[in-house]
Design goal:
The protein is α/β, with parallel strands linked by helices and 419 residues long. It contains twelve helices and 16 strands. Helices cover 37% and strands 16% of the residues. The longest helix is centred in the middle third of the chain and has 21 residues.
Length: 419
């Protein structure tokens, strides 16, 4: 009763209005589907996103060839496979591609199949997706790292830093955490309006006001936190995603201004911002190959700030092992499409937990209504989730799914220890 009968893929669209892949996997007349997200700020070592670059009808962005490969090749290969054998299926998909970064088939094609298989397995078992992953009991809800101001590659303003986020550290439940963020976001909107700026939002739902320096954004956020009746650094903390890959030239960085300066000067400025604004988490403070700068940063923050590797690790076990040996970070961002299968992603999470890293499950800037990562965060016991602001339905859908999970867990629902 659990053998895959067919696999059907189609081209759909993501939150940026670009084509992406949706795959539906069937066991007789029961099916489940998954949509693959797409990033704007991507690391060099990420798994490959395959597009029809010669198809001018979609400006070179269509995914019709990967869709055809799923329908003609993968569907036949997976027929009669047991849908519950995720590892076996994922390994077949990896072998079908046969390249290190999945350049032949495309990680976007492979991942859409892999997630759909996990969803269908859960459906047939009649259990929620989060109960079909790593954790068997004592499920905990992640803390939201909510993106409230967009800059960098996610907005058209002059901000160097890509994401300014808040995390409700004093929340005793997920719903309380969302409520706290909701209040701060509304106070921030009022402040931006009073400044005469637009309250339009960037790719991930955070405001994208036309302000040009990082400290102006940080001051605004602190003011919004205070107006909400919360204490910055205690009730709510500020977290940053720098995306330094976009701000490096000849091993010098233009993170704090348009001027490129040394690693030591960049760290010195980071330390001032950490002290002044009580920042608790910084993602990608340096470039993906600048291992020594990461180590310096970790040491100079006395290991008390969450230093998160995204472009540095790209959800890749080999990269994570190098980072561990170099003492380069203490946390890892997890994006399924950076590696391409559910199985490989779980292996990275297992190793990260083994070495004492925090795992943060993340969306992409080009996302969809698919809520898989919400269940994935709970089912992998990850203590934080990044999925944008309380704006744009492709972001809010993940928060709503986590609220459903919290409701279904009832009195058993607990939050992670954030420290």
């Amino acid at each position: 009763m659990s053998k895959i009968s067919k696999v059907i893929a189609r081209q759909v669209f993501d939150s940026r209005g670009n084509p992406t892949i949706e795959t539906e996997v069937f066991v007789k007349d029961i099916s489940a589907s998954a949509i693959c997200p797409s990033g704007a700020s991507t690391g060099t070592y990420e798994a490959f996103e395959k597009r029809d670059i010669k198809n001018k009808k979609y400006l070179g962005k269509s995914v019709l060839k990967p869709v055809e490969f799923i329908n003609k090749v993968i569907s036949k290969k997976l027929k009669n496979y047991n849908v519950h054998q995720q590892e076996k299926i994922d390994n077949l998909l990896i072998r079908l591609d046969g390249t290190k970064q999945k350049t032949k088939v495309g990680a976007n094609a492979i991942l859409s199949v892999s997630i759909a298989v996990k969803k269908l397995s859960s459906k047939i078992k009649r259990i929620p997706i989060y109960k079909n992953l790593l954790v068997n009991k004592n499920f905990k809800l992640p803390y939201p790292m909510m993106n409230i101001i967009n800059g960098g590659a996610h907005a058209n303003n002059g901000l160097r830093i890509q994401e300014f986020m808040i995390r409700p550290d004093k929340a005793k439940s997920f719903s309380e955490g969302v409520r706290m963020c909701f209040i701060v976001i509304n106070k921030l909107r009022d402040l931006i309006k009073k400044m005469g700026h637009s309250t339009s939002v960037g790719d991930e739902g955070g405001f994208a006001p036309m302000i040009n320096d990082n400290e102006s954004a940080l001051k605004l956020i602190v003011k919004a936190i205070n107006l909400s009746g919360f204490k910055n650094g205690k009730d709510i903390v500020i977290c940053l995603d720098v995306a330094a890959n976009e701000l490096i030239k000849n091993k010098r960085y233009s993170i704090h201004s348009k001027k490129y300066v040394s690693v030591d000067k960049t760290i010195s400025k980071y330390l001032k911002l950490i002290r002044k604004y009580k920042i608790k988490s910084i993602e990608d403070p340096f470039g993906e190959n600048d291992w020594s700068a990461w180590t310096k940063m970790l040491i100079q923050t006395n290991y008390k700030v969450q230093i998160v590797g995204d472009d540095l690790f790209v959800t890749n076990l080999e990269r994570l092992k190098i980072g561990f040996l170099n003492v380069s970070a203490n946390s890892i961002l997890i994006k399924l499409n950076q590696i391409g299968t559910v199985t490989e992603t779980l292996e990275v999470i297992k190793f990260a937990k083994l070495i004492g890293y925090k795992t943060i499950i993340s969306h992409r800037s080009g996302d969809s209504e698919d809520t898989f990562i919400a269940d994935f965060a709970v089912g992998t016991d990850s203590n934080q989730i990044k999925t944008g602001s309380l704006s744009r339905s492709e972001r809010v859908s993940k928060y709503n799914q986590l609220l459903r999970i919290e409701h279904n867990l009832g009195k058993k629902s607990k939050m992670h220890n954030i420290n």
